[in-house]
Design goal:
It is a single chain. The chain is an alpha+beta fold. 48% of the residues lie in helices and 19% in strands. It contains 5 helices and 6 strands; from the N terminus they run αβββαβαββαα. Strands 4-1-5-6 form a 4-stranded mixed sheet. It has a two-stranded antiparallel sheet with strand order 2-3. Helix 1 packs across helix 3. The protein starts with a helix and ends in an 8-residue tail after the last helix.
Length: 110
């Protein structure tokens, strides 16, 4: 396992909710990352944002790790949930809040 894979795995396993994104939660640097941040903030979920723009190795590493080609990527309890489209669809269908509940993650009543 490469150093970057170990870093990613550690982030995924040691944080209940982690978002690999372009930019930071306070300053997203792409619209898709921004949408997922807005959804998580709206739901009041505590999460860690990891800025993949800090390193090309990290940017490629997360795609290899998940076998998913796009950023952002949301992980909950060590499980890859999806990117912006999937998160937005789950949110609009009312499934995302329930999903967090099933995983034991506190979310504010929407």
């Amino acid at each position: 396992m490469t150093a970057i894979s170990q870093f990613i795995e550690n982030e995924v396993k040691s944080n209940d909710v982690v978002l690999f994104m372009k930019g930071t939660p306070g300053f997203p640097q792409c619209g898709f990352s921004g949408q997922v941040v807005q959804i998580l903030d709206y739901l009041g979920v505590d999460y860690k944002g990891v800025n993949i723009l800090t390193s090309d190795e990290l940017r490629q590493g997360i795609k290899d790790y998940s076998q998913w080609p796009t950023i952002p990527q949301l992980y909950v309890k060590g499980e890859f949930v999806g990117g912006c489209d999937i998160i937005r669809e789950m949110f609009q269908a009312g499934e995302l809040k329930d999903f967090f509940g099933e995983k034991g993650i506190a979310a504010r009543a929407a």
